[in-house]
């Protein structure tokens, strides 16, 4: 199902107390924050942390997000999140995230975010070559082909 | 365009300092928090605040969310959010939100959330009659017809 | 007790669902966020919103905060917060906040924040005259006297 | 300076994108959230995660907090936080936290929180013996002596 060429990274983290709500599980908005953490660690794993992308003048604001919430996770639950990335066209990136309980793999949430590629002035630009390189590994492999 | 029978509520609020990020606009996750505020005020406007729903044993966890981010809004921007609600089938509710700059109506974000209907034990239940009543006003009007 | 000359502003707001935690009341960190809201609205009430302070090149990062948490407030509680401000010396501002239930005045939390006064380069500067003017009303009244 | 008998735990974490604000550093309220993370990991390090404390019917709401903010930390900064705990009397616990840049040890923030000890009904109770045991290691060592 998953193309081996798609860059992927998995990390573990725990639900913070303040991330729960009075229903006793994580509050939905924090999933978007966690997804950002996943993108951050995936970019580091690819060899160029996202903070460095911004220093190079490339910004990736989220323009669209879709989330499905499939299971509860109270305070201190050890979660496991897998993040993948793929270009969608020449001016967008798409990150996919899947969050499960680390021990049981019980599903918690999954979704994707779509990102514009902006320069320092906030103008849309094409994906720089060094980004495509990071994601596609230089090859013209499937995840990067249009 | 908008069916007059769909319950709708509009409120204004400002972007908090802590809701911005280092790109100088609101951080995306807060939109999900704002959408919850919209649902809260719509339920109060319909005559039965959501806190009362929970006291009656009805819980509405978000099971799906879709968001589009269409414009910036830095600290202290006065925003205007319109929220509507409609049943989707007998066991789901859908809320729609649209957020714009209060003064210029410049678009900021819009999206929807889909909610399960659970009882105190966390079991899915059908929409209680008093909820359909609140939303459909007793009539079998379009937003509530299947 | 309270000097009539001290600028003061009171606002009301509700506890958001995502601001609660699994203990069923607001999570403590949000009080710092609420206190910022109080400073924002006090500055607007004084005639010059804080966003304008930053446009003039004056930044007020918090350098110290003290908080006491005295009572619960679950989701949707209508709270009332009073904020006051006073200079402390020539290079610091102090804001005080008190949060109670709007209807019963039952105490929820109170505290203060102390702020450095920085210019655009992040260097500490003396309180500009226009800030002292805003706070002390031009007079050499007590809250501003050293 | 630091009594060897005081339970202490150090952890590392990164500043999330959404934890920054438009000044380009972490927003102050998140320090209270981080301090909670420190307490969580210290309790796990002591052998009984705080989630288990609540399952045993002991709750530790924060009743007081003091924070000093001493340095900036933008997105993705690797931080190091050290947390210690000590009883203060028979009905309060005090946690201390110090946050620095992991690499340079440049100071970021430090402070403490004081916690009530409540039972399931929200009534104040004395520190249970098993808590004193965890913290004082069974000995009547200094951090636990009155």
Write the layout of secondary structure elements.
The structure is a homotetramer of 146-residue chains.
Chain A: E1 8-14, H1 30-45, H2 50-55, E2 62-69, E3 78-87, E4 92-101, E5 107-116, H3 129-136
Gyration radius of chain A (Cα, Å) is 16 Å
Secondary-structure element series of chain A: EHHEEEEH
Note the total helix count of chain A. 3
- Strand coverage percent of chain A: 25-35%
How many E strands of chain A? 5
Provide an overview of this structure.
The structure is a homotetramer of 146-residue chains. Chain A is α+β, with helices and mostly antiparallel strands and 146 residues long. Chain A is 21% helix and 31% strand. In chain A, strands 1-3-4-5-2 form a five-stranded antiparallel beta sheet. In chain A, a hairpin with a 5-residue loop joins β4 and β5. Chain A starts with 7 loop residues before the first strand and ends in a 10-residue tail after the last helix. Chains B and C meet through α1 of B and α1 of C. β2 of chain C pairs antiparallel with β2 of chain D, so a sheet runs across the interface.
Would you summarize the structure shown here?
The structure is a homotetramer of 146-residue chains. Chain A has 146 residues and is an alpha+beta fold.
């Amino acid at each position: 199902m998953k193309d081996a060429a798609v860059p992927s990274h998995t990390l573990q983290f725990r639900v913070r107390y303040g991330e729960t709500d009075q229903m006793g599980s994580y509050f939905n908005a924090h999933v978007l924050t966690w997804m950002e953490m996943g993108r951050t660690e995936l970019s580091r794993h690819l060899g160029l942390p996202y903070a460095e992308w911004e220093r190079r003048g490339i910004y990736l604001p989220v323009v669209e997000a879709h989330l499905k919430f499939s299971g509860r996770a109270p305070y201190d639950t050890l979660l496991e999140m897998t993040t993948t990335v793929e270009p969608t066209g020449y001016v967008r990136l798409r990150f996919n995230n899947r969050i499960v309980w680390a021990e049981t793999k019980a599903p918690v949430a999954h979704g994707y975010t779509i990102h514009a590629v902006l320069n320092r002035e906030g103008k849309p630009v094409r994906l720089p070559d060094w980004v495509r390189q990071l994601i596609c590994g230089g090859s013209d492999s499937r995840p990067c082909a249009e």
